[in-house]
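Entry 12.
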Amino acid sequence: MELHIKNMVSNRCKLIVKSELEKLGLHYASIKLGVAEIADDTPPEKITLLDFSLKKSGLSLIEDKKSMLVEKIKNVIIELVHYSEDQIKVNFSDYLSGKLNYDYTYLANLFSEHQGTTIEHYFLHHKIERVKELLIYGELNITEIAYRLHYSSVAHLSNQFKKITGLTPSHYKNLRVKKRIPLEKV
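Predicted 3D structure (tokens):
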């Protein structure tokens, strides 16, 4: 049985889900971003207890099919931006459609309806949060960050960064207090 989990956006979230499953004595086959695979014969009471315990950590189970699909869209974007260095070979809309086996127009309309923003804005905001993270680490310069996140140029990255944050990447890097948004809040 697949359990779809809202706001499961990081490895830390996967550890929380794993811990809660183990506390309840539930056996799992796999835990991925947004999904935990458990035994089909799990009693409904244990599922309810799991949902209650996950809510304490800002996570929750999803049962609505459309909400599940919206979470899958988010997880594909998060996986692509934060956990993959591979450059996609097709445009983003084709990539997303291929990953989820739905028409992009349907996905875009559903996402906008549920989230109040477009897939493109969501994707862009995650890219900017990743840029912030890489700037804070200080291991890469802005040119290397632009290359890693597949921007066409440093100027393109800088323009998008300034449009979203109001700061240039170099000004952001020099701030004493660097404000980042948690992934589940983007």
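Annotation: The chain has two domains: 2-62, 72-186. The chain has a mean pLDDT of 90.
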